[in-house]
Amino acid sequence: MINTKNGKLTPWVVSRRDTTVSVSGLKSSNRYGKIKRVGVFSPFLYLYDMKLLNQLVKVILENRGREYRPTVLFSNMIDNKLVQLLSTRHQRVERFGNQTYDDLVDMYNEYIETRKSKFQKPPRIAVPDMMVRDFFESNLMKIYYSFEDENPENKQIIFVKKRKDNEDYDVFSYIEVLLKKEGNFFYIITSAFSKDGKFLMTDVEEKKSNRVRLETRKNNNILVIYL
Which of 69-83, 110-124, 138-152 is the least confident region? Predict the structure, then answer.
């Protein structure tokens, strides 16, 4: 602002103490007057909040509608065809398949040490991706031709095998892996450790069960093969 006193153009300096700005933006010339404030507006906090909000919106928009890309764990050639093993989001993220075996054992040990009731359920952990990869590679031909020979309508088979080197709780005695075959790609739908090799099964105990349990849902006609 410009002061035209005495016909000269001079800067008009305004002291911060002489003018108070309320929340509504109205000015008061009363130097010592008190203004009732509902809140204090901070441009720095406002800009920070807006920046944070914009970042959240950006993340939401970037991930909306984006499908999870399965992680390739293993590749090989069979019958001149590229065969791959892929880990799904449920296996790798939701069931901690991206963790190491030791990490998952520690998770279970922590549950045992801290549980407050015998009715408290243990954490639902998967077989680590690296163990499933080794399991798949060592039984590759058996798994591959099981799908070829059985040709299940739902393209899914549960493979179960007893561990020979288990030194932990008996719940780690068996490996169970549910695979789905699409073309030459094998997807790990889910997996689990168990003490009897029947975690993914319900009532039927035969090698080829018609009912299995996946989380809290029941699915029909899923073949179970012991390796």
Answer: 110-124
Tell me what the mean pLDDT of segment 8-12 comes to.
Answer: 47
Boundary residue ending a domain (63, 80, 109): 63
The range of the structural domain enclosing residue 190 comes to 71-226
Closest to 20 (Cα-Cα) out of 5, 50, 40: 40
Identity of residue 63? N
Q: Is 138 helix (H, G, I), strand (E, B) or coil?
A: helix
Residues 32, 133 share a domain = no
Answer yes or no: do 44 and 120 share one domain: no
- Under 8 Å CB-to-CB from 179, ≥6 apart: which residues? 136, 143, 156, 157, 158, 159, 186, 187, 188, 189
Residue where a domain terminates, one of 46, 63, 80: 63
**Confidence check: pLDDT of 73 > 70:** yes
Distance CA 4, CA 35 (A): 31
Tally of domains within the chain: 2
**For the chain, what is the largest distance between any 2 Cα atoms, rounded to a whole number of angstroms?**
107
